[in-house]
Amino acid sequence: MTGSSCTGGGQVPSLRPALSRDVRAQAQRAGCNGCANMGTPQKDVIIKNDAPATLFLEKHADYIAAYGTKKDDYEYCMSEYLRMSGVYWGLTVMDLMGQLHRMSKEEILEFIKSCQHECGGISASIGHDPHLLYTLSAVQILTLYDSLQVVDVNKIVEYVKKLQKEDGSFAGDKWGNFKIMFIIQFIFLKSRIKKDILHNLA
To answer: Is 141 exposed, middle or buried (CB count within 10 Å of its CB: 0-12, 13-18, 19+)?
Structure first.
């Protein structure tokens, strides 16, 4: 097997044999002679030629409607840290498929209410810290259900105000971590909450 020297003086196997001739040729034409050795294209799912070409909306809706009914499922437990956004994604898909009525509105609204903290921010799940991202997801869910009155909107506004930095940008939480997406999330929040105080920001 062909090898190449690494910094530690050992040998690492070349990945060139694993790549197709076409892939290597494309990389070389692009002026990247070393690119062809960087890795192997991954294809973890093979779709058979006789696979159905129809999108089974009912099966998708059944899956989403049933997701979360088994609270002890491994996947459900491990996704708790992004639960609020997951609920939003699921509800949006169900709404697009005309199946929103299958979701438990009362249970979802109660969940959101229980995730609002004294500071006004909303967390991904009960017992987690509030964050701008999950506050946005919660507000999006509430506007989908036309139920903003479930939470204290004034406190949300105050929470968002405190996350704004001197340069106009926004932190995601009280620890001040910054990503450009937090500004985008603020814009979405601003479009959902019609409050003068929010319109005076940014």
So the answer is: buried
Amino acid sitting at position 73: D
Q: Helix or strand or coil: residue 9?
A: coil
Length of the chain: 202
Rounded CA separation 172/141 (Å): 19
pTM: 0.69
**What digits encode the pLDDT tens for the residues 116-171?**
999 999 999 999 999 999 999 999 999 999 999 999 999 998 998 899 888 888 88
Assess contact for 123 and 115: CB atoms under 8 A: yes
- In the chain, where are the structural domains located? 3-37, 57-199
Q: Where are the alpha helices (DSSP H) in 97-193?
A: 105-115, 132-144, 153-163, 180-192
CA–CA separation, 167 and 6 (whole Å): 45
CATH number of 57-199: 1.50.10.20
In Å, what is the CA distance from 162 to each residue of 118, 122, 129? 14, 14, 15
Q: Which residue has the tokens 């507000």?
A: 139
